[in-house]
Design brief:
alpha/beta, 2 domains, 6-stranded parallel β-sheet, 11 helices, 9% strand, Rossmann fold, two-stranded antiparallel ribbon
Length: 362
């Protein structure tokens, strides 16, 4: 039996803005100035919220959370490409995109202080809550996409995950199902180089994560994840293909987690300052600001106004969050099941009795 070649494969990469903010005009997506400014504001707001949340956590006013500093271009660029009718299915580092979709700042503050109310996104009902279990949300995303295809909706799903999730079985099951059924879903991998303390090189021998699409016979592309325009273009094209019946796409956004994995983590134990500083020089906000300046859309005065505006917006959100009342210490028991459960109610009574006993002891 002769040996024949099954096929040859390649993976494309995309960058529209280089690290200095210089533009490849042939690849620039068709955006209005209002959209460009909205994209920059979204990234800047996310950075402000992230830094404020870090201060609150260190002051004991907020629980553990996963900072998104350095990865704003990835989720904001993708969010800008989405319609309100598309589903946004995050993991736990997509707060920038969620804010652009209309999820209020208070939602993140509530969620990271243990309140289930933080999962409610009334202003953006097709934005799902945080998924902490690595890779679990990919299966949910495929289910949503298949349901929309079954119903004939002109919509698609974008689901986000990190490089570590590509080592999970859920990732492969989701891609396989989506490919077989041509579900309208975009798999968006934020390759931030580290799965907590495990570098990408130690979890896969693949030269890229985008090439994992080849095994499932779906399009795959690697983009500069710190280039908001490249992210927008790749996501927009993938969504258009999905809505037109062309099935799923895998996007690998190469970016970097500039802060800790979560606020319970010490990244100095496993990576060098030199590596981190090299990535700070690729800061997506600085890059996009230079692009806006070259287009005559931005300057130092506008930057100062924006910074004051964002600080006031975050200040107000924190104040509203900390002034909220009506949450009892037993609030988590109310969100286990949709209807009252005798076992849970018994646990609630026992918990409240214990709290009362401890309080009486002073």
């Amino acid at each position: 039996m002769p040996i024949t070649e099954l096929g040859s494969f390649s993976v494309s990469t995309l960058q529209v803005l280089d690290e200095e903010g210089h533009l490849d005009e042939a690849l620039e997506p068709d955006l209005t100035d209002a959209e460009r400014l909205r994209l920059y504001r979204g990234m800047a707001l996310a950075r402000e919220v992230d830094q404020r949340m870090l201060k609150l956590q260190r002051q004991g006013r907020l629980g553990t959370f996963a900072p998104s500093t350095g990865q704003e271009a990835a989720t904001c660029g993708a969010a800008l490409a989405m319609r309100d009718t598309d589903w946004f299915v995050p993991s736990f580092r997509e707060m920038p995109g969620a804010l652009m979709r209309g999820v209020p700042i208070e939602a993140s503050l509530l969620y990271h202080n243990g309140y289930e109310e933080g999962n409610v996104a009334e202003a953006s009902p097709r934005t799902l809550p945080v998924a902490v279990i690595v890779g679990s949300q990919l299966l949910h995303a495929v289910g949503l996409a298949y349901a929309m295809k079954y119903r004939g909706e002109d919509s698609a799903v974008v689901t986000f995950f990190g490089d570590g999730a590509t080592s999970q079985g859920d990732f492969h099951e989701a891609l396989n199902f989506a490919a077989v059924w041509q579900a309208p879903v975009v798999f968006f991998c934020q390759n931030n180089q580290w799965a907590i303390s495990l570098p990408r090189a130690k979890q896969t021998r693949s030269r890229s994560l985008a090439q994992k699409a080849i095994a499932y016979e779906i399009p795959g592309i690697q983009v500069d994840g710190n280039d908001a325009l490249a992210v927008y273009r790749a996501t927009q094209e993938a969504l258009a293909r999905a809505r037109a019946g062309g099935g799923p796409t895998l996007i690998e956004a190469v970016t970097y987690r500039l802060m800790m994995h979560t606020t319970a983590d010490d990244p100095t134990k496993y990576r060098t300052d030199e590596e981190v500083q090299a990535w700070w020089r690729r800061d997506p906000l600085v890059r996009f600001r230079r692009y806006l300046e070259r287009r005559g859309l931005w300057d130092n005065q506008r930057q100062g106004v924006l910074e004051a505006e964002l600080k006031a917006e975050v200040d107000a959100a924190v104040q509203r969050f900390e002034e909220r009342t009506g949450f009892g210490v037993d609030e988590p028991f109310a969100h286990v099941f949709g209807t009252p459960d005798p076992g849970i109610e018994a646990e609630r009574r026992a918990f409240l009795a214990r709290v009362e006993a401890e309080a009486s002891r002073g």
